[in-house]
Design goal:
4-stranded antiparallel β-sheet; globular; about 375 residues
Length: about 375
């Protein structure tokens, strides 16, 4: 199998699996206990927190809250901030956010909040109002890989004294992030996007920011996210964060980018009318969104699946009908282009041979589809 859908999820790396397995049978204790066995378990949680903080270049590991993943982190960040400042009833986000942000914003509109959905980050300053309580903008888009100018946006928010939440689910582990230099207020991440298990994530909350919890209980995570800790998942996330930082430091992502670029160049060269969506924009190094002229992305994806090549389309199923991707529509793509789009997302495990095999399979499949 050739797996090129790493923006959907990644394989748990062997080193990560080895690190987390003891916490199911050998170090199974509840870290909240007062006895030495519990303290030994809690020590590993602290180490994982340090590893995540190091990956983000956060000044304090206490700024890291462990959650169940990116969706919970996004919900906790947005609701937690708004509930802590009830007089601020306006939110600014973009039209291309992940559903965990967009669906929450639509729910908040039903709760008498006002939401501005930007089509262009350049519109941000004009959209700010006296009652703006939060700006929530992703760092990297999950479909196209496009990077938003978070450094510039964070500077504007700091100058305007408005909190900025960044969904960095598709950026963490793929680009260098330095929260000592980029003054974001809150940042979400999900472990299974960079080779940790599913069901574990984190929310960075800059020191001094007031955040009300979504879940009340035993007061874990400094009272911001109660519930007995998922120790194995946390340890796995910590090890994945350590490995991700090493890959970034060692330049491994440059190799991933070279493979992605070769895939794009060969597709454009060999398949007439293909287009790289957002080719001229800054992107994460592993992601390519490609529109195939005159073909349906769904058909391409299914036929590639028959060749044991895993990719995704730029569309999503809604109420039984295939609707064009909201991201591609917001970018100005017509329905034909959106429906013909395939997303390839590579990882540090992708090989040159796999790219060659994918290109050969595409040639066979497109000839078949064109008749």
């Amino acid at each position: 199998m050739i797996y090129l859908d790493n923006n959907a999820t990644t394989r748990v790396l062997p080193e990560v699996l080895k690190a987390l397995l003891p916490f199911y049978q050998e170090m199974w204790g509840n870290p909240s206990g007062l006895y030495p066995f519990a303290a030994q378990v809690a020590k590993h949680i602290s180490q994982a927190r340090e590893n995540v903080a190091a990956l983000l270049r956060s000044q304090r590991e206490s700024e890291i809250i462990f959650t169940s993943g990116g969706t919970e982190s996004n919900n906790l960040a947005i609701r937690g901030v708004l509930q802590s400042n009830p007089d601020k009833r306006h939110i600014i986000t973009t039209q291309v956010e992940h559903p965990s942000v967009l669906m929450l914003c639509r729910q908040l509109e039903k709760e008498n909040y006002t939401v501005t959905y930007l089509s262009d980050p350049a519109e941000l300053e004009k959209a700010i109002r006296p009652d703006t309580g939060l700006i929530s903008i992703m760092w990297a888009n999950n479909e196209t890989g496009v990077l938003f100018p978070i450094e510039k946006i964070a500077g504007l928010c700091l100058a305007k004294n408005i909190l900025l939440h960044v969904d960095a689910t598709q950026a963490v582990g793929k680009i260098a992030i330095d929260l000592c230099k980029v003054p974001v207020s809150l940042l979400s991440l999900s472990g299974h996007k960079f080779h940790a298990p599913k069901g574990i994530g984190a929310l960075y909350v800059r020191r001094g920011i007031k955040l009300l919890p979504l879940v009340y209980g035993g007061g874990q995570e400094r009272g911001r996210r109660s519930g007995t800790e998922n120790v194995a998942g946390i340890v796995g996330l910590g090890e994945a964060a350590r490995l991700a930082k090493k890959r970034l430091d060692d330049g491994v992502l440059e190799n991933v980018k070279a493979l992605r670029d070769r895939l794009e160049q060969q597709i454009v060269k060999n398949f007439s009318g293909t287009k790289i969506n957002s080719q001229g924009s800054p992107r994460v190094p592993n992601t390519s969104s490609i529109a195939f002229n005159g073909l349906e992305g769904e058909s391409l994806s299914l036929l590639l699946g028959e060749e044991e090549i895993c990719v995704s389309t730029g569309s999503a199923c809604s109420a039984g009908a295939l609707e064009p991707s909201h991201v591609l529509k917001a970018m100005g793509c017509d329905s034909k282009q959106a429906r013909g789009t395939i997303r390839f997302s590579l990882s540090c495990e992708t090989t040159s041979q796999e790219i060659d095999q994918t290109l050969a399979a595409l040639e066979k499949i497109t000839k078949r589809l064109h008749g």
